[in-house]
Design goal:
With 608 residues, the chain is mainly alpha-helical. It folds into two domains: 391 residues, Na+/H+ antiporter like fold (Up-down Bundle), CATH 1.20.1530.20; 157 residues, 3-Layer(aba) Sandwich (Rossmann fold), CATH 3.40.50. It contains 25 helices and six strands. A six-stranded parallel sheet has the order 3-2-1-4-5-6, with helices on both faces. It starts with 5 loop residues before the first helix and ends with a helix.
Length: 608
Amino acid sequence: MLASNPAAEGRFFIDLVVILATAAVIATIFKRMRLETIPGYLVAGAIVGPHALRLVSNVETVEQISHLAIILLMFTIGLMLETASLKRGMMSILAVGLISTLLVVLFSWPLVVLLGPSAPQGLVIAMAFSMSSTAVLLRILQQRRELRQPHGQLCLGISIVQDILSVVLMAALPLIVAWDTGAWIPTTGPGQSLHPVVLWGLRLTAMACIIILGRIGIPKLLHFVANSDDRSRGTGSAELVLVTSSALAVGAALVLGSLRFSPEMGAFLAGFMLSFTPFRHQLAGQLAPMKDLLMAIFFTSVGLRLDPAILAGNWPTILFGVSLLVIGKTAITAGTAWALGASGSVAVLGAAYLANAGEFSLVIVSSAADAGLFEPTSVATAIAIVVVSLVVSPLLIGPAHALAMKASSVRLAPWVRASVMRAFPATVKPAPTEAETGAEDPGASSTGQAVDPVAIDRHKDHHVIIAGYGPVGRSLADRLSRRGVPITVIELNPRTVQKQATLGRSIVYGDVTNAEVLESAGIREADALVIAIPDEMAVLRACQMARALVPGLFIAARASFLSQAIKARQMGADSVIVEEIVTAEAMAALVTELLEARRAEPSSAGGA
């Protein structure tokens, strides 16, 4: 469409530049103010939108790009779900997520209806506001290094439940729209061969078949694609897996859209099914930069709907909505968590971290608006409530920790005997910072020294990550394993990963330069990272990435030349083994041994 109209094409690119540039400026200001970037994107959209400065003229075209962005964004969110948490005895935590989310909907639905919306509209708003921001939650937990603590695990479990429930809501959205218009009454019309209930039953059956086939077929397809590369390192297969996965996301959105479901739901389900495969960590890392860009485009385009005049006229409703959202969600989530076994401190912190609305809230409201369920005033008001909650909730973290200290004296619920949510997280010390430990090893030289397995073995709880399972990595892994040192291997060859995983080895598929892969391998709990891959450029990037993630981590690397070793040290390596120096030392030892043996031969002969 744009190619046939050069003027429209030029205007589109101008609009896109305006959106991205404004989003960058406003988000930077928000970061300087220690606020989250998502509200900044929404404010940027409101500033350049048709209701303010009117710098963006072709809103429809921008929304088409935004629609593709949200499809890919939902795919990455589904991909990044920590599905392994479902297997770690977290059923009580998941129960907290399900019950608290449903209670938020049940309590807020009638209150929303009292403000004017119809019952179907109020139900959608209540369900949208019951969702919390996964992006903001993970960012705060990672920055504070609280992801592994009890309240972090509680928040993660609730977030998983909310993400799954959001998919259910998006699947039911067409029915809710039909209910609002009165078309939900089960009658067949002229030319309609199937009863509406039967038609929806067939659609749900088709969706179930797609999910089952995808769950079975997608892992096999990705294994086939990954193993199609004959090179031993398998670096080309990572690119093929990424392209194939993106095609699956768009294809799933197309198929479920043709079944009258939300295309976003199809993309989310595709990502969720991929989260069960060993490729999830590598894909998540590869898509992380794209995810950030897509978030900027989507949330800025949502901000285009904001009308400052409407917001100024509805500010009492917005303040009431934000107060109801933050206070109500905090009270309900904390009460539910305590009732199901959480200590007072864990319940308070978990509830405070989830007191906001989130990206799924905006997706649901935007999808409902596109379906004709809401008018512009309702959409602007709902988006404003989400924006304010995202700005306010991070400011509550400090007071929440102070309140959690006082709540630690609250006894467990009398009907609870055992729970995984009992520990008080403030007793867990955060990981040491660079200022506390220092990034440099004072005993290491530019040539470096090998990691001392004996020194590591002094404490049985040490954990070592080995990047690369070639001859060097395999030999080191075997030696450490014989000493009882827990190790995790990062390897990019899918055949090696599959074989070692079947043998019980803790191994992660992915590139060591990928932050998501390092996180999944447990870099924040590790004592050492050994980079044993022969790719020198990758070694440098891995050193830089690992040092940025964990400043106090001990990093050992290999290098072919002394010049590369110096660069690796500059990038963050504590110790570097230089192959040319090791070779020279080995050859010198060999020649010295030979000369000494020959020098001893005449004296031996004379003595005879």
